[in-house]
User: What shape does this take?
Amino acid sequence: MYFLKRLFVIVVAAAGLSASAAAQADVRQIAAKVDRHYNSLITLKADFVEIYRGAGISRSESGTLWLKKPGRMRWEYREPREKLFLTDGKTAWFYVPGDKQARRTSIKKLDDLRTPLAYMLGRTRLEKEFTGLSIAPDIKPLVPGNIVLRGIPRNMTDRISDVIMEVAPDGSFHRLLAQEIDGSTTEFRFSSQNVNIPIPDSRFKFTPPRGVETVDANELAQ
Assistant: This one.
């Protein structure tokens, strides 16, 4: 009887290790699919919804996202208020039409939850950008058939506790949800994604309108 019990324990433990190894293999396969999708991407146009929740606040905004390698992105917010967040690969701009100031900062100094999406503009690996990458069986995907991953962005561990990534069968991100250390969350949902369409470089350049002052981010911090 002791022998049978011992054998049962060994078999169960081995099955657990096998399941763990299989899950890790699945994560790597999914990550590789995401890598292939975005490494082959040159441009992307998509509709987005950004949802922020925290400290009794809930806010939803929407618009169009434009990406182009190397390192360029343009977030055109339309609802509930027009505003623009743009990077040309070196400099980031933030401007709200009608304001008298446009904010400017270096990409290297930028601390913004939209910047981790620059992964989509590089030639890198998901497993390199995120630690603890794993499948999140406790999170239900918004779209049946999608897979949900969890990980921590290596360059934002002082701010982000984890990121939920919903991956479509083609390897594209359908949803990204960042959980901040202070308990707040910022979620991005993407739809109507069009890849490798012509996008002029001029879309990623910004010149402040006449009468609008340019303020550097370090000046705002003082």
